[in-house]
Amino acid sequence: MHSSKVTVYNTGRRSLLFLLLQCTQFAFSGKMKIVEEPNTFGLNNPLSGQVNRLQPKVPPSPVSGPAHLHSLSGKCFSYIESTYKYEFCPFHNITQHEQTFRWNAYSGILGIWQEWEIVNNTFLAMWMREGDSCGSKSRQTKVILSCGVSSKLAQVSEPSTCVYSLTFETPLVCHPHSLLVYPTLSEKLQKEWDEAEQARYEELITEQGYNNLLKDIFEEAGFLKTQRVTEKKDASNPTKKFESLEKCNEGFQKQKEEIERLQALLTQHNIPHEKQPAEKPQSPVNVAPAMVSQNSHLRGDTGLLSDLV
Ligand SMILES: *[C@@H]1O[C@H](CO)[C@@H](O)[C@H](O)[C@H]1NC(C)=O
Ligand SMILES: *[C@@H]1O[C@H](CO)[C@@H](O)[C@H](O)[C@H]1NC(C)=O
Prior knowledge:
Layout: H1 12-27, E1 77-81, E2 84-89, E3 93-98, E4 107-119, E5 122-129, E6 133-134, E7 137-138, E8 140-147, E9 152-160, E10 163-170, H2 187-201, H3 207-220, H4 245-268, H5 302-308
Parallel strand pairs: 8-10
Antiparallel strand pairs: 1-2, 2-3, 3-4, 4-5, 5-8, 6-7, 9-10
Helix pairs in contact: 2-3
The structure holds 2-acetamido-2-deoxy-beta-D-glucopyranose (2 copies).
Protein name: N-acetylglucosamine-1-phosphotransferase subunit gamma
Organism: Albula goreensis
Keywords: Disulfide bond, Signal
């Protein structure tokens, strides 16, 4: 008479829990004591081979950087150090799995592929961020690329709390030019870089301004995560007349904000933009000289005074 239908939930844990509850219900109907605890029913156990508990917070960034490294996408490399196994999937993620048979062995995401670290115009490391929470922050991992005879993870450390550092050795980065940024750029971005280089040479921009220009180029190429908020384009015809004073004020405010934004951008790039002689030299205001009439006495009662004497 118990034709129980087992619902398959999206997480194995819940379907297991459901099953268990169903079973225990039959076994000790009414006598069951439910103990509240974060039971994972061994799903984290490396032996069970299940990692579906790991829920990435963000999708990985698109594959980018040197073309000869793109073949690493879809592959995974593991490395065991002491009681942990690390699994690095280039351009995807990095995870950590405690090697123990305990029922609640730890398994977690140390980062999802986000962006490159570029130093001295060379790809240096892959940043995997937005991993599992660590207090108010997220775990993150820097995977440093280094030349080696075969592709493998080599070292792991935690330079600061929940920030991990691993070295990935591969023959793909042994050629001295294999990690240069410039050759990976489009013609347009290479031209922009050339111009920035020229401007720096001619001292038209500061070192900081030059670095900001490069950062913009790297962001546009998709090597760095963009911090800027992408603005939605206003589709309405900009030459359209305003229907009301309110609309006009609104439009004015928008333009003002846009100008401020652009000025901030120029300042950021150290491009001088101060309004040249914006204000004309102030023409002296013609203050009407106080009319002190010498004849004011005419209206007084001077006559009386003289009369008194
Ligand atoms: C990590 O990336 C690999 C390779 O793409 C993928 O199979 C796996 O599901 C990912 N794991 C997580 C937790 O995102
Ligand atoms: C930067 O790269 C150039 C050329 O690859 C090299 O000559 C120079 O020593 C590097 N500088 C630093 C600080 O690494």
